[in-house]
Amino acid sequence: TVPADxxxxxxxxxxxxxxxxxxxxxxxxxxxxxxxxKNKSKKTRLGxxxxxxxxxxxxxxxxxxxxxxxxAEAYTLFSDLFxxxxxxxxxxxxxxxxxxxxxxxxxxxxxxxxxDPENKFIVSTRIRCGRSLQGxxxxxxxxxxxxxxxxxxxxEIFAGITDPELKGTYYPLTGMDEETKKKLIADHFLFKxxxxxxxxxxxxxxxxxxxxxxxxxxxxxxVWVNEEDHLRIISMQNGGNVGEVLGRLIKGLNLVAAKxxxxxxxxxxxxxxxxxxxxxxxxxxxxIKVPKISAKADEFKKICDEMKLQIRGIHGEHSETKDGxxxxxxxxxxxxxxxxxxxxxxxxxxxxxxxxKAAA
Length: 360
Ligand code: ADP
Ligand code: CIR
Prior knowledge:
Layout: H1 4-19, H2 26-30, H3 33-39, H4 50-59, H5 72-77, H6 79-89, E1 122-131, H7 144-159, E2 168-172, H8 178-186, H9 196-200, E3 212-216, E4 221-225, E5 231-238, H10 242-257, E6 264-265, E7 269-270, E8 283-289, H11 297-306, E9 309-312, E10 325-330, H12 338-358
Helix pairs in contact: 1-4
The structure holds adenosine-5'-diphosphate and citrulline (CIR).
Citrulline (CIR) binds near residues 56, 63, 64, 66 and 317.
């Protein structure tokens, strides 16, 4: 059973959330007294408790979501909390709903014409997906040996990529010089370090062991190793050619998938550490300048909300925006196909550009 001091921390966490008037997280909303009482003494086979699920959102009251799954079993064992969070984040995906079969949209790429052929609005386009390697739990339950083994497995797989467009080099974070690292982060290629949401979730242990980035020469195909998820597979380039970006992602994903079996849940699709990424795991985004329609932040947010688009800052989630450039992406990842997730971004951004052109 769960030790008394851990159960006490869960109760204190609940009290802290209830007392925090400014906290708007999905955790606060859905962690009711009943959920606490029913779940505080449960633990997964790997020993994770409700505290592991909630501690990031308890520590960071400005969380939008606030929960993480320490291992796959947590999604089922703590479904009293995860299900309502998932339903609210993913546009009403119910506990009885099932993620559709994977459809990356190979056959539909031709429908994705360049969103900004004159290069007036879109700085760059990126599509990423997350994957978990079968046989390993998520960050909080990994030990140092796990990290090393996962990294060496991936290094072998990367070394075997011979496709002329995609082949590249793996750069471990261990030993990377500060200047190189800073530049890779500033240029939007590498994950940032010391994310406080992940840290509080116990996801940054043994850092930088087992973490790193693979990329091709042009930095248009990249794979993050052991940041938030085991793998983040990324395709990106300047401009608004979503079709090209998606085509490259599919090619790269298939190459990695052929060598590494990934964890998939019968109902929740591809498994990820954060419930916001379940299902397709796809975040398709543009960095876009639409100064007229984004002049008033609250109106811009309303327009984006209506089209199921999420706005982030120029340096990703929880960052501020600079020079009027916004990161606009699909919000929902679960309960639709991969192609539909990309299409949500595509159709929404197309509309944003039309609105910008029409604005006086
Ligand atoms: P993720 O997309 O993996 O969930 P973040 O929101 O933190 O995580 O973004 C990771 C990095 O990717 C950040 O540096 C962000 O600026 C960059 N990025 C996201 N979308 C684009 C884009 N369309 N063009 C260029 N860089 C992007
Ligand atoms: C938060 O709750 O703000 C962080 N734990 C990050 C949640 C992921 N957010 C998202 O929209 N993908």
